[in-house]
UniProtKB/TrEMBL annotation:
<dbReference type="GO" id="GO:0045493">
    <property type="term" value="P:xylan catabolic process"/>
</dbReference>
<dbReference type="GO" id="GO:0031176">
    <property type="term" value="F:endo-1,4-beta-xylanase activity"/>
</dbReference>
<feature type="region of interest" description="Disordered">
    <location>
        <begin position="355"/>
        <end position="380"/>
    </location>
</feature>
<dbReference type="InterPro" id="IPR008965">
    <property type="entry name" value="CBM2/CBM3_carb-bd_dom_sf"/>
</dbReference>
<dbReference type="InterPro" id="IPR001000">
    <property type="entry name" value="GH10_dom"/>
</dbReference>
<keyword id="KW-0624">Polysaccharide degradation</keyword>
<keyword id="KW-0119">Carbohydrate metabolism</keyword>
<dbReference type="Pfam" id="PF00331">
    <property type="entry name" value="Glyco_hydro_10"/>
</dbReference>
<dbReference type="GO" id="GO:0030247">
    <property type="term" value="F:polysaccharide binding"/>
</dbReference>
<dbReference type="InterPro" id="IPR044846">
    <property type="entry name" value="GH10"/>
</dbReference>
<keyword id="KW-0326">Glycosidase</keyword>
<dbReference type="InterPro" id="IPR012291">
    <property type="entry name" value="CBM2_carb-bd_dom_sf"/>
</dbReference>
<comment type="similarity">
    <text>Belongs to the glycosyl hydrolase 10 (cellulase F) family.</text>
</comment>
<dbReference type="InterPro" id="IPR017853">
    <property type="entry name" value="GH"/>
</dbReference>
<protein>
    <recommendedName>
        <fullName>Beta-xylanase</fullName>
        <ecNumber>3.2.1.8</ecNumber>
    </recommendedName>
</protein>
<dbReference type="InterPro" id="IPR001919">
    <property type="entry name" value="CBD2"/>
</dbReference>
<keyword id="KW-0378">Hydrolase</keyword>
């Protein structure tokens, strides 16, 4: 049997989630993709979807058209575990309008049909981005570029009006390093006004869809999220913005300590917030301790959304680790998702289920495998810094604390040899901004079992062109 289709008139601002579980067994049909399947929902909330439905939140996943078409187990899991879909690639400009006026919706249609057949919401991704936009668009300028943008938004938004619940109208429009606008062909061709035009167009094309601005590395409070905040303020004041998407492509152990406060300040503007592309990458191969740390990180992010009434949901950026974009872009990193390649559940799955109020049987890790390696004498913990990405006037660092005994807290200290100074930090707190840095764990990463590690991170400013130094760190147990 088909579940009732959702393309009824949408209510904004808060859409009532349809309950997937009434009682007993619900059969899921996937007629649109040509292959029937059925699955059963247990009445206890032992799926992400069941737990998220109870919270009236989206638990979403980025899906691949090819896998939905060709892999019945993947399809079954997507239908069973998630109540919201994002097309990982199929709604981007290169997929939907590869040449001027030539629209190709086969893949996007199939994903929207699948969502309807399975009573799932759709978060649309994305209209205006500097990547995956065909060269015919990038080669336009002035009025022609603006016309192409407006026509594209109108055509795609109109096609899915009432079927796509929310849109990333613009994606990644802010620069990484200095809180300026991203230097893209959009900015060069149209000036900053292209953002307002895009939102005005989308609002007129589908007045009932929630409109989001979406970006990465804005999960904590920093120069980039400050810039998004000021753009969001302006768009909200014109009533053409409904929410902010925090992609949350995170590194293990680096959930920003101020992530909740950051999301809250956007909520305070009257906006929704949404975790739109969550993944947490690990240096591969990942060991059991790292997978447990990853579970803790997933738990934390999910809890933040679960606790914020105006957080519309969490979307993970793919199903299986092997599907992820991460290893291709960050060689040596991977394993960032909730499922192994055989679709078995990772510890992170149980943590997300638990954070959604389901039966994840998962307690936050306070102590875990006891290592047989004796600690170096006289040192309860050791810590190191590494430069992740330097630029002319700054750099991002990752810090690692290794516990040589069971820790309930830790403090790290070092002195910068030159003009380096921390500008913002995550997963660490204290006197961080001076020449001598003293930082301690935040709430969630103080308890570290002997042999385990936890990480923190920060950005520095430095003299233009100077080398980002790597000072020696002293680590002291609390
Ligand atoms: O880069 C990760 C994400 C960052 N935020 C915006 C997202 O849209 C972005 O998603 C990724 C997809 O996960 C990848 O699957 O965007 C990439 C492109 O920038 C996607 O990769 C592309 C490959 O680069 C192409 O070679 C490939 O043809 O996927 C295409 C379709 O499979």
């Amino acid at each position: 049997m088909l579940l009732s289709r959702p393309h009824l008139s949408r209510q904004r601002p808060s859409r009532q989630r349809r309950r997937a579980v009434i009682a007993g067994v619900v059969t899921v049909a996937t007629a649109a993709l040509g292959l029937g399947l059925s699955t059963q929902f247990a009445s206890a909330q032992t799926t992400l979807r069941g737990a998220a439905d109870d919270l009236n939140k989206d638990i979403g996943v980025a899906v691949s058209y090819n896998l939905l078409q060709n892999n019945a187990q993947y399809r079954n899991l997507v239908a069973t575990e998630f109540n919201s879909l994002t097309a990982e690639n199929a709604m981007k400009w290169d997929a939907t309008e590869p040449s001027d006026g030539n629209y190709t919706f086969t893949q996007a249609d199939a994903i929207v049909d699948f969502a309807e057949d399975n009573d799932q919401t759709v978060h649309g991704h994305t209209f205006v981005w500097h990547q995956q936009t065909p060269s015919w668009v990038q080669n336009l300028s002035g009025t022609a570029l603006q016309t192409a943008m407006v026509e594209h938004i109108n055509t795609v938004a109109n096609r899915y009006e009432g079927r796509v619940d929310s849109w990333d109208v613009v994606n990644e429009v802010v620069s990484d390093s200095n809180g300026a606008m991203r230097d893209s062909f959009w900015l060069r061709g149209l000036g900053e006004g292209y953002i307002t035009t895009a939102f005005q167009t989308a609002r007129a094309a589908d007045p009932n869809a929630d409109l989001y601005i979406n970006d990465y590395s804005i999960d904590g409070i920093n120069a980039k999220s400050n810039k998004v905040y000021s753009i969001a303020q302006g768009l909200k004041s014109q009533n053409i913005l409904d929410g902010v998407g925090f992609q949350a492509h995170l590194i293990l152990g680096q959930v920003p300590s101020d992530m909740e406060a950051n999301l809250q300040r956007f909520v305070n503007l009257g906006l929704k917030v949404r975790i739109t592309e969550l993944d947490i990458r690990i240096q591969t191969p990942a060991d059991a301790n790292e997978l447990q740390q990853q579970a803790n990180d997933y738990r934390r992010v999910t809890e933040i959304c679960a606790e914020l009434a105006d957080c519309s949901g969490v979307t993970v950026w793919g199903v299986r680790d092997g599907d992820s974009w991460v290893p291709g872009v960050f060689p040596g990193y991977g394993a960032p998702l909730l499922f192994n390649d055989d679709l078995s559940k990772k510890p992170a799955y149980n943590a997300v289920l638990d954070a959604l109020g389901g039966d994840g049987n998962e307690e936050p890790t306070t102590s875990n495998p006891v290592t047989t390696t004796p600690p170096p004498s006289g040192s309860g913990c050791t810590a190191t810094l590494s430069v992740q990405s330097p630029w002319n006037t700054g750099a991002t660092y990752s810090g690692t604390v290794k516990a040589n005994q069971n820790l309930t807290g830790w403090t790290v200290t070092w002195t910068w040899p030159g003009s380096e100074r921390i500008s913002n930090a995550w997963s660490v707190q204290g006197n961080l901004s001076g020449a001598t840095v003293t930082g301690s764990n935040v709430g969630y990463n103080g308890t570290v079992a002997s042999g385990q590690t936890t990480t923190f991170g920060f950005n520095i400013t430095k003299a233009n062109g100077s080398t980002a130094s790597v000072p020696t760190v002293t680590c002291t147990p609390a």
